[in-house]
Amino acid sequence: MLAEIFSDIDQTFFRPHPFTRRAAHDIANRAGRDLYAVLLFDQRPVAYGMLRGWDEGYAVPSLGIAVRSDSQGLGFGRLTMAHLHAEAVRGGATEVRLRVHERNTRARRLYESLHYEYAGEERGELVMRVVLRPSARNGSAPSPRAGATPARETGDPERQLHITAASPVTSEVVPLVIVGAGGFGREVLELIRSINAASPAFDVLGFLDDGPASRELLHRVGSEVLGPATRLADTEAQYVIAIGDAVPRRRIDALAREHGRIAASLVHPWATVGADVCIREGAIVAAGSRLTTHVVVGRHAHINVNCTVGHDAVIADFATLFPGVHVSGGCVIEEDATLGTGSVILPDVRVGRGAAVGAGAIVVRDVAPGTIVVGSAARPTLGGRHPSDSSSG
């Protein structure tokens, strides 16, 4: 992985160490406090970053980043910086320094936008420093659309790397459409407005929906339906799917990917997301939710308001957690599974693909794929309503 990205880094202004296979091997297998990170998009490494100096006894670590040549201008550098800032805080740092060449105007603009200030010169380059924000030192998530997870396979030769996966963003406001104009769609619109209130990120063009939608309710929130979901093919915008049912979410995602559209990941500013959390493209994390540590949230997974997801849990692609769900540590919620409002999943339980857990159920053992379970000890049922029939979204 490191060798791949090293082969495509422009070394005009960035030469912290040799970009050789031997260097990649040594970095991937090193020990110590210094941190080296790779940003992935669609499983492809697109950016490389580092925090160095701790192992030499410095209290203020030095930061460096590089984005591969064909992936610049998509916000990957900003996401890598956000992750490194969060890791610096976790390492006890109150500020970070870096060096930048005077002629590297793209990098200087990025650092200035992140409140770095000039602090002299060193080795023919400008020195910049930033004091990490008090909110970051109190444990706030580094970015609404970035997550991170170290490589899980203990036998991975790159086990020392921090592997970060996230959807791309830019420093500009990004045009966005919401697919699904029902109640949950309007909730997602409010979620986006909360993100924008904290830091402008999205320009919501409107909704796409194949069915009837209430013009009055959409008018009340200042929006409208632009057309059916097929408009994704000719709409130059990112998208998010605000539909509770995983089946249409999959269909719409396939259409969007066919036409090269990028899914935005949304995390409400009032959600708590640990630094060691991976939130993949299209995922939605609503207000009041808590994701602790070593958690993966898959593509187009939905985590509704006031949910909790414990340590080492996996919420797989297109899984849905309705409001007030509690997923304990070590659980795996497989693809397309649905957890009804207020349900509780006890530690280390696996909920199979396409399974549905009824509202208020307490799940104490694994649930087979495609099964519907209900009740305080979550028993299978042959009938009854799907949890999504009685929950918002």
Topology (SSEs and partners):
Elements: H1 2-6, H2 21-28, E1 35-41, E2 44-52, E3 62-67, H3 76-90, E4 95-100, H4 105-113, E5 117-122, E6 125-131, H5 134-137, E7 146-150, E8 162-166, E9 174-179, H6 183-198, E10 202-208, H7 215-220, E11 225-227, E12 238-241, H8 246-258, E13 266-267, E14 272-273, E15 277-279, E16 284-285, E17 290-291, E18 295-297, E19 302-303, E20 308-309, E21 314-315, E22 320-321, E23 326-327, E24 332-333, E25 338-339, E26 344-345, E27 350-351, E28 356-357, E29 362-363, E30 372-374, E31 379-380
Parallel strand pairs: 1-8, 9-10, 9-12, 10-11, 13-16, 14-17, 15-18, 16-19, 17-20, 18-21, 19-22, 20-23, 21-24, 22-25, 23-26, 24-27, 25-28, 26-29, 28-30
Antiparallel strand pairs: 1-2, 2-3, 4-6, 5-6, 7-8, 30-31
